[in-house]
UniProtKB/TrEMBL annotation, chain A:
InterPro entries: MetI-like, MetI-like_sf. It is found in: Cell membrane. Keywords: Cell membrane, Membrane, Sugar transport, Transmembrane, Transmembrane helix, Transport. It comes from the Bacteria. This is Multiple sugar transport system permease protein. One of its GO terms (cellular component) is plasma membrane. GO terms for biological process: transmembrane transport. Belongs to the binding-protein-dependent transport system permease family. The chain crosses the membrane at residues 9-29, 75-94, 106-126, 138-158, 179-204, 239-258.
Automatic annotation (TrEMBL), chain B:
The keyword Transport applies. Keywords: Sugar transport, Transport. Pfam families: SBP_bac_1 (PF01547). Transmembrane segments: none annotated. This is Multiple sugar transport system substrate-binding protein. It comes from Paenibacillus methanolicus.
UniProtKB/TrEMBL annotation, chain C:
PROSITE patterns: ABC_TM1. The keyword Lipid metabolism does not apply. One of its GO terms (biological process) is transmembrane transport. This is Multiple sugar transport system permease protein. It is found in: Cell membrane. Pfam families: BPD_transp_1. InterPro entries: ABC_transporter_permease, MetI-like, MetI-like_sf. Keywords: Cell membrane, Membrane, Sugar transport, Transmembrane, Transmembrane helix, Transport. The chain crosses the membrane at residues 12-39, 73-94, 106-126, 154-179, 200-224, 260-282. It is a multi-pass membrane protein. Signal peptide: none annotated.
Length: 273, 437, 291
């Protein structure tokens, strides 16, 4: 009885927090089905008094949404895959291999991660321009896949995996690449899932880099589309939110897909206690 | 390892700095020479390869079709020049423009969103000085040449005016009729305006109609001083104090929504006016075009009127702040002649007639005026647009971007009630002396 | 021991190569350039002129810079503390295998993926001085509830609230991944020793979570020092300069005033502060991080 009570209390708390956290989403969803003049009615109308699904049609015809969608999906997938590859390799080296200059190099990574993007934006742009990469997806790919944050994150996870496991594999005659691919990576599923979620949602929502590097409509991504909706429809938040809701689905899907590895990933005892 | 690292970084760095930014001076000189050569070549050999110039502008539905029409008309006259449009959305346009123009750039010409941006880039020589070319264009630019003086920085012209907007007072005739109040006069002081706004404010909460709605921009209060012929760079800022006090009285008395409320709801004058929630709106002369569009879309359900913007006591009626959308040629363009040809075409009579179909043109030529007037379905008096006496909305001199930031920050604090208007003006004077270059 | 390095060094460089090559060209090089620009008066176009320490001297007397510096420190310290507490709490809450738990996890992570425009609009409405839900409620108790975003005294608090809301779910994901790695037996053993829930949290969970906590504290502080978007869309540094943080000021100097050199100098000061804080933490890593 007591357990049931505390269980339901727990659910009440979790639901309450969930409501607070998803408030903007609920508002976005509800606004996206409203008429323009009802958007800022106070107190907030959570269920639209007049239902206006035509907002979605208006948005999807106003900008080349399918193209933007495809570009976003393509970039998010390529960058996430690339970041996972380069960052887990480098993270592994920093965490588990001994080599001269390791700490200093890692420090350089950390320091560069601390510099605000707004500061290196211009020098980065000049480099990309000299390489002829402006107005191409390559600029965004190269900008993101070498993320120092990704390296840092992977290193922190790799470092916490028990050394005995690698030693055992080494005794079994496994090479370093084998240890990495067959022993460590499978254990690092939660870290990989985490980086996937972070990276995907970052690329999906990133506005500044695509803004700077992409000029042609055929290359633009969803956040740029949302921004042009924002300019186009001035303060017509019902339409802007219809665009925003349309853009969210893939990120939510990736989250659901990746987060299940948090549970199945680590086998008991793999982490040093 | 460390040495190798430092060395590699040094090489990359020097290379990029040199090719990206440091080399500008030479490049500029070289391309200046090229422009002359290109010109010579193009007159000498008519059958040469067409040149493509890149033109950057911000876009929304209206301006997109406008620029498309302009390009089509221009290319019909100039088969040897193609115009490629590079567009960006309005909110982030300045940022995109700044980055694109850092170091050298392959964009040949571009639009400025406001004169502050124009000043910012013209004052560092990022755009080409156009005096000689404008003079050389002869009659072609007669329609817009009256604006040249307002665009000169230290006596030099760096851009061509494309659109020209002043301020006007717009009102909802139905609300005035319902309240039994006469329509606003074309010759009204700001004091009379505030009194009128109070008179027309009715109701509470959801059903409230406001007497006045102005955007939150600082021009809505510093315009008072501009109309008196002063500038924010003047030693004595007293003339601006009255403007700020009146602007604050509007919100304090409840005749106009407060800045805090507007920020919280992202309020914009257009939907507020369309919803019949305000009797008067004070904004730029681009507004009639929007209203006409709204009428076509069936969103406008009442009659509206337009008259001259109110003015301080003792200032002639029809005195209004005025500002222009300017186009300039990039200093690193390799096709400066062609870029200027394009700009002078769209600022010339034929181009401006096309512009007039969409937005308020800069040209005063008769044909352009008629084209603009023909957009409006019934006899709305266009005098406030064509007959106003312009005073500059911004004074183009060193420190303009910094000063505008200071004025906005301190003015907002006064409007939010954190400091008094007196304190705000004193603070502007104080910060101005410290922060301006 | 020393000889044991070298067999691994080759492999290590091989592993590092793809990342380091790109990192040097696209991240480290621009960063070094930004640092160098801090000693110039570059305006974004004209040839670069070295001005030595002039920019730094000007920073000493620049009031906007001082205000932004204080704002940055306040914002970072308070937000970081609250974000970490909130995210650990959320992680503990959803670290179970009840039905529908993934929905809750997604819900808590949601603020991180919501677009900034939506976040700004909804929170501005929530903080509405007269008709917003918060003040509607507070009016039951007081006649003059705070003006939130429209008040210099409360704007920072409002921003911190939104920051915690937006970032807690993000770090929850990290803590959750960490919690999943703590072996169940340790809790069982602690239970047998008679440790209660609270004691188990302090003695088992927190120490074993310390590598993740270390990561979170460092990244959280760095991210907060770098925050820009939220402030840009919510307050634009206002009212007045009440929420102007360093990155916002840097952005303004570069993009509104063309002072790229000066902005870089400001950035270097920011970097020096973050560096110092991180260094202190790194020093302390051995003391409280349990590998």
């Amino acid at each position: 009885m007591g357990q049931l009570l505390s269980r339901s209390a727990l659910y009440v708390v979790m639901v309450a927090i969930a409501l607070v956290m998803t408030l903007p989403f609920i508002w976005m969803l509800s606004t996206s089905f409203k008429l323009e003049e009802h958007v800022f009615n106070f107190p907030i109308e959570w269920i639209p008094s007049v239902f206006a699904p035509e907002n979605y049609k208006a948005v999807w015809t106003a900008i080349p949404m399918p193209t933007y969608y495809w570009n976003s999906v393509k970039l998010a997938l390529i960058i996430t895959a690339g970041q996972l590859l380069t960052c887990s390799l480098a993270g592994y080296a920093f965490a588990r291999l001994e080599f001269p200059g390791r700490n200093r190099m890692f420090l350089v990574y950390l320091v560069s991660y601390m510099i605000p993007y707004q500061v290196i934006m211009i020098p980065q742009y000049l480099i990309m321009k000299n390489l002829g990469l402006v107005n191409s997806h390559w600029a965004l790919v190269f900008l993101e896949i070498f993320s120092p944050y990704g390296v840092f994150l992977m290193r922190q996870f790799f470092i916490s995996i028990s050394r005995e496991l690698s030693e055992a594999a080494r005794i079994d005659g496994c090479g370093e690449i084998g240890i990495f691919a067959r022993v460590i990576l499978p254990l690092a599923k939660p870290a990989i899932a985490t980086l996937t979620i972070f990276c995907f949602s970052w690329v999906w929502n990133d506005f500044q880099a695509p803004l700077i590097y992409l000029n042609d409509d055929r290359l633009k991504t969803i956040p740029l589309g949302l921004a042009s909706l924002n300019g186009e429809f001035a303060s017509q938040f019902n339409l802007i939110m219809a665009g925003a809701v349309s853009s969210l689905i893939p990120v939510i899907a990736v989250f659901f897909f990746a987060q299940k590895y948090f549970i199945s990933g680590l086998s008991v005892g793999a982490v040093k206690g | 390892m460390k040495k190798w690292l430092a060395g590699a970084m040094g090489i990359v760095l020097t290379g990029t700095l040199l090719s990206g930014c440091g080399g500008n001076a030479q490049e500029e000189a070289a391309s200046g020479g090229n422009a002359a050569e290109t010109e010579a070549a193009s007159t000498g050999n008519a059958a040469k390869e067409p040149v493509t110039i890149k033109f950057m502008h911000w876009s929304d539905t209206a301006s997109e079709s406008m620029y498309a029409d302009l390009v089509a008309a221009f290319e019909a006259h100039n088969p040897d020049v193609n115009v490629e449009l590079v567009k960006s959305d309005i909110k982030t346009y300045s940022e995109k423009l700044t980055i694109t123009l850092t170091g050298s750039s392959d964009v040949d010409a571009f639009a400025f969103k406001d004169l502050k941006e124009y000043y910012r880039l013209a004052s560092i020589g990022r755009v080409v000085q156009l005096d000689d070319q404008a003079a050389g264009a002869g009659d072609a630019l007669n329609g817009v040449s009256h604006l040249f003086d307002t665009l000169k920085i230290d006596g030099k012209l760096y851009g061509l005016p494309f659109r020209n907007d002043g301020w006007a007072l717009f009102y909802n005739k139905n609300l005035f009729d319902a309240a039994g109040v006469a329509y606003p006069k074309d010759d009204m002081t700001w004091e009379a305006y505030v009194a009128l706004a109070k008179q027309l404010t009715q109701g509470e909460g959801q059903g409230k109609t406001w007497g006045s709605f102005m955007p939150d921009w600082s021009q809505t209060w510093y315009g008072y001083g501009q109309q008196l012929g002063k500038t924010l760079f003047d030693e004595d800022l007293a003339p601006y104090l009255r403007g700020l006090e009146l602007r604050k009285e509007l919100t304090d008395s409840g005749a106009q929504p407060t800045v805090a409320e507007n920020q919280a709801t992202n309020a914009h004058y257009r939907p507020v006016f369309l919803a019949g929630k305000t009797a008067m709106v004070n904004t730029g002369t681009w507004f009639p075009g929007m209203l006409e569009q709204d009428k076509k879309d069936g969103k406008l359900s009442f009659d509206w009127g337009m008259t001259y913007v109110p003015h301080p006591e003792g200032v002639a009626k029809g005195t209004s702040m005025s500002t222009a959308v300017v186009h300039s040629v990039s200093a690193t363009s390799k096709h400066k002649e062609e870029a200027f040809k394009w700009l002078s075409f769209i600022s010339g009579d034929e181009g401006q007639t096309i512009v007039a179909k969409y937005q308020t043109p800069a040209s005063k030529a008769d044909g352009v005026k008629q084209a603009f007037e023909s957009n409006f379905s019934e006899g709305i008096d266009m005098a406030p647009i064509f007959n106003m006496t312009p005073v500059p909305e911004r004074n183009l001199q060193a420190g303009l971007p910094e000063l505008e930031t200071i004025v906005t920050e301190e003015g907002n604090r006064a409007l939010l009630g954190e400091i008094t208007p007196d304190e705000a003006i004193a603070s502007i004077a104080d910060r101005r002396s410290k922060e301006l270059p | 021991m020393k000889r044991a390095f070298h067999p691994q060094a080759r492999t290590a460089y091989l592993f590092l190569l793809p990342n380091v090559a790109g990192f040097l060209l696209f991240i480290a090089a621009p960063a070094v350039m930004a640092v160098l620009l801090g000693f110039t008066d570059w305006d974004g176009f004209n040839p670069i002129r070295w001005v030595g320490l002039d920019n730094y001297k000007r920073l000493l007397t620049d009031e906007s810079f001082h205000i932004s510096l204080v704002n940055t420190l306040t914002y970072t310290a308070l937000s970081c503390l609250l974000v970490i507490c909130a995210s650990i709490a959320l992680a503990l809450l959803v670290n179970r295998k009840t039905r529908g738990i993934t929905v809750f996890r997604a819900a808590y992570f949601f603020p991180h993926i919501a677009s900034f425009i939506a976040v700004a609009v909804i929170w501005q409405a929530i903080f509405h001085p007269t008709q917003g839900p918060i003040n509607m409620f507070l009016k039951l108790f007081t006649d003059s509830p705070p003006m939130w975003l429209a008040s210099s005294d409360w704007a920072m608090t409002s921003l911190i609230i939104v920051t915690v809301w937006k970032m807690a779910g993000y770090y929850m994901v990290l803590f959750l991944a960490g919690l999943q790695g703590i072996p169940e037996e340790l809790y069982e053993a602690a239970k047998i020793d008679g440790a209660g829930v609270v004691r188990r949290f302090w003695r088992v969970t927190l120490p074993l979570l310390s590598p993740v906590t270390f990561l979170v504290v460092i990244t959280c502080i760095i991210n907060l020092f770098k925050s820009f978007d939220l402030i840009y869309v919510m307050t634009a540094g206002g009212p007045g300069r009440a929420t102007s943080v360093l990155v916002y000021d840097i952005y303004k100097q570069a993009f509104a005033f063309n002072k790229f050199g000066y902005a870089s100098a400001e950035a270097i000061v920011l970097l020096a502060i973050v560096l110092l804080i991180t260094f202190v933490q790194y020093r302390g890593e051995k003391k409280w991080v349990n590998y």
